[in-house]
Backbone:
């Protein structure tokens, strides 16, 4: 069976449409994957920062409990501690004027 020119053109056009749809689909999937990876990286960075902050606060409170008040308070000031939390520490160590 012989294929006519118009049938060849139709098959070529159909193949081209299929290829374009496939390229669009793959591009969309790659875009979705990259967005997901960026969001995952942002979450990892946030949790990493929170963990580092918690470790700093832990070290600060350890210094305070060991009696190294000045060192502990300076370390604590370098963290995301609130003024209320800092005031409580000053009260705990008896430095009421600084609270």
Residues:
């Amino acid at each position: 069976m012989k294929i006519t020119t118009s049938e060849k053109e139709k098959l070529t056009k159909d193949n081209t449409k299929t290829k374009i749809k496939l390229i669009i689909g793959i591009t969309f999937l790659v875009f979705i994957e990259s967005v997901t990876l960026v969001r995952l990286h942002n979450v990892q960075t946030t949790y990493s920062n929170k963990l580092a902050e918690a470790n700093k606060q832990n070290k600060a409170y350890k210094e305070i409990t060991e009696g190294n008040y000045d060192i502990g308070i300076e370390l604590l000031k370098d963290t995301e501690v609130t003024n209320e939390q800092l005031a409580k520490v000053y009260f705990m160590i008896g430095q009421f004027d600084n609270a």
In short: The chain is about 80% helix and 0% strand.
